[in-house]
Specification:
Layout lengths: L1 H24 L10 H10 L9 H53 L1
Helix pairs in contact: 1-3
């Protein structure tokens, strides 16, 4: 298990290296639009913020941002599942009530 985790860690680190290097070459910018990595690299280049932003810190921030996005997607999916479940439950209740009313009408 440890070996698999290290393998994933190395792959992820290589991918983040690639992303940062592509942005440094200008390959990450689409027209005038800047993404999160571009902004972090601008902060690093311009010495903004009063601290040194190392490449490893940029990679960590990108990773955290991605994890946060994934977490939000999971939560939205949970809410959609709950909403779907409640909707089905309401439809079932509605069907039951209609059936009960129909049965009552037939017996009267």
């Amino acid at each position: 298990m440890n070996r698999k985790v290290r393998g994933v860690e190395e792959d992820l680190d290589e991918f983040l290296d690639f992303v940062v290097k592509e942005h440094l070459k200008g390959g990450g910018i689409r027209g005038n639009e800047k993404d999160f990595v571009d902004v972090l690299l601008d902060i690093r280049r311009n010495d903004e913020g009063g601290f040194v932003l190392e490449e490893s810190s940029i990679k960590a921030l990108v990773l955290v941002a991605r994890v946060e996005k994934i977490w939000i997607c999971v939560k939205v999916m949970d809410l959609l599942f709950i909403e779907n479940f409640l909707l089905k439950l309401l439809l079932d209740v509605n069907l039951y009530l209609k059936s009960a009313m129909l049965m009552k009408c037939m017996h009267v």
